[in-house]
Design brief:
Helix content is about 35%, strand content about 15%. It has a 4-stranded antiparallel sheet, with no helix packed on it. Strands 1-2-5 form a 3-stranded antiparallel sheet, with no helix packed on it. The protein is globular, with a radius of gyration of 19 Å. A hairpin with a 4-residue loop joins strand 1 and strand 2. The protein is α+β, with helices and mostly antiparallel strands.
C-alpha cells in the first residue's frame, strides 16, 4: 500500500491507465529485487505484495478500477470483484454452519483465528495462481488492461464515490455507508447470510476488512 500510494503521489497528472499499471508494477518489482528473489515471487503468487486501487484521473476524466474495488458514479454502482471470491465465501459459510452445529459458539468463530477459513485457504492459494491472468491486482507482475475497467465521464457535473471492498454496500455518504456496515455487523457478524464474505467480524472490530471511502464532485 505504501509503495502504491507513494507512486500515485509522484506520477504525472496526465498519466494514462495503461501507463499507471506499468509504472506501479515496476515500482513493486523493484522492491522485490531489493528484498526477495523475483523467481520465487513468480512461482509463489500467494507470497507477493498485493494491493488494489481505484483512481480518478482529473485530466482524463476517467475512473480506473485496478483490482477488487468499487465505486458510485452519478449514483450508478460499478465494481471489479475477484472471480471465485463468492465461491470461497460460500465454502467458508458452509463450514461455519457445520462448526455451529458441532457446538462452536459465534464468539469462538469471531476470534482472530477463524477455524472456518482453514477449509478455504488451500483453494484461495490455488486461485492466487490466476493473479493478473483472470483478475487484476497490483503485485509487481504485468497487469492485463483487459482486466481493468475504465469508466469515462463526459463534462457534465458528476458526484463520485471511490471505496475499498471492506464495505459490502456503498451509499451516497460515508455516514450511510458506515450505517449499512454496522447493520451487517449487528445482523450477521459471521457474514454467512445474504452477504457472504471470506472473513467474519472479529470480536471487538467494527469492520471485517480494510475500508476506504472518498466522495467528491467534478
Amino acid at each position: 500500500m505504501k509503495i502504491v500510494s507513494r507512486y500515485i503521489r509522484r506520477m504525472p497528472a496526465d498519466i494514462s491507465c495503461q501507463q499507471f499499471c506499468k509504472g506501479v508494477t515496476k515500482a513493486i518489482s523493484r522492491h522485490y529485487w531489493l528484498r526477495f528473489p523475483k523467481s520465487r515471487m513468480a512461482e509463489h503468487p500467494e507470497e507477493r505484495l498485493t494491493a488494489s486501487a481505484v483512481i480518478y484521473s482529473r485530466v482524463r476524466r476517467e475512473v480506473w478500477l485496478v483490482g477488487d474495488c468499487h465505486c458510485l458514479v452519478g449514483g450508478e454502482y460499478y465494481d471489479n470483484p475477484k472471480p471465485y471470491e463468492q465461491e470461497l465465501a460460500e465454502m467458508r459459510a458452509a463450514r461455519v454452519r457445520e462448526l455451529l452445529a458441532e457446538g462452536y459458539t459465534e464468539e469462538q468463530l469471531r476470534q482472530p483465528f477463524d477455524p472456518a477459513r482453514e477449509v478455504m485457504i488451500p483453494h484461495m492459494i490455488e486461485v492466487m495462481k490466476n493473479q493478473n491472468k483472470t483478475y487484476a491486482v497490483i503485485d509487481g507482475f504485468h497487469i492485463p488492461q483487459s482486466l481493468v475497467p475504465v469508466l469515462t465521464l463526459n463534462f457534465q457535473p458528476w458526484e463520485i464515490v471511490l471505496a475499498s471492498d471492506g464495505y459490502p454496500k456503498l451509499a451516497a455518504t460515508l455516514e450511510e455507508t458506515e450505517s449499512l456496515l454496522e447493520q451487517q455487523r449487528l445482523n450477521d457478524p459471521l457474514n454467512i447470510g445474504r452477504f457472504k464474505a471470506t472473513k467474519a467480524f472479529v470480536q471487538g472490530n467494527h469492520s471485517f476488512d480494510d475500508r476506504s471511502y472518498i466522495r467528491f464532485t467534478v
